[in-house]
Amino acid sequence: MYIDSHCHINFPEFAERLPEIFQRMQDNQVSHALCISVDLETWPQVLAIAQSRDNLYASVGVHPDYEDCTEPTVAQLVELAAHPKVIAIGETGMDYYRTPGPLEWQRERFRVHIRAARKTGKPLIIHTRSASEDTLRIMRDEKASEAGGVMHCFTESLEVAQAAMDMGFYISFSGIVTFKNAKQLKEVAQAVPLDRMLIETDSPYLAPVPFRGKTNEPGFVKHVAEEIARLKGVSVDEVGNATSRNFFQLFKGAR
Ligand SMILES: [Zn+2]
Ligand SMILES: [Zn+2]
Description:
This protein has helices spanning 18-27, 43-52, 74-80, 104-120, 132-141, 158-166, 183-191, 221-232, 236-250; strands spanning 2-7, 30-35, 56-60, 86-95, 124-129, 149-151, 170-173, 197-199. The chain is α/β, with parallel strands linked by helices. Strands 1-2-3-4-5-6-7-8 form an eight-stranded parallel beta sheet. Helix 2 links the parallel strand 2 and strand 3 (56-60). Helix 3 (74-80) crosses helix 4 (104-120), helix 4 packs across helix 5 and helix 8 (221-232) crosses helix 9. The longest helix has 17 residues, at 104-120. It is globular, with a radius of gyration of 17 Å. The site of one zinc ion has 5 residues, from loops.
C-alpha cells in the first residue's frame, strides 16, 4: 500500500479523467491521497474533491509562487482548517527560484501559515526552493516545530534535510528522485531514515520514470517508492508500509 502525500488533482487537466485516476490508484495499491491547496480562489474545488471520496484529504493554504491572489490571514486559515477533511496547512514556504523581486510578502505569508498551523495543531506542508536558509530561519523563528509537518518535493541538501528533521519534520520525495541526473537527491534519499520519510507525486508535475514528461497522477507514486527501495536496498513493501505509517502518524486528522 502507498500513499500520495501531495497532489493537485483539482487542476483542470484532471477534470474529465477523475474516475480513471481513482481506478489507477486502486490498481497500483495507492490507498490514499492528500489534495493540496495553492490559493483560496481554488480551495473550494480542493475541498470538494476531498469530500467526494473517503480516501482523499485536503490541505488549506496559499502557495509562495502565487503573488496576485487573496492574502490569507491567520484567522481565515484557522477557520477553513476546522473542516474535518482538512488535515494540513499549506502548501506554504519560500520560493526564490520562480518569483523574482523583493519577497518580503512571501516571508510574511509563510509566517501567517506557521501561526495558523500552531493554532490548529495541524501540520505544515512546506515548499522550499532556492531559499532553504530563510525557510529554516523562519521555521525556527516561528516555532514551526510545535506544529510539525513535511518538507515536500524535497530537492535540497542532506544538511537542510537534517535541520528540518531536527525540528521534527518529515522529508517527502517526489518523482525527481527517479531522474537519472538527480544524483545528489538519490544520496539524500539513501541517508534519510525510512521512519522520517513520505512519498508524493506533486501531480500533475514531475512524473517519475518511466512516465517522465507525461501528466503525473497519484497512481504513479509507486514508482517513487520503487526507486527509494532500490536506493536503500530494501523491499518496495517496506517503503510503502513505512511511508504510509508515517503519513498517519503525522496527519492525525487522516483515518
Ligand atoms: Zn510545492
Ligand atoms: Zn504542490
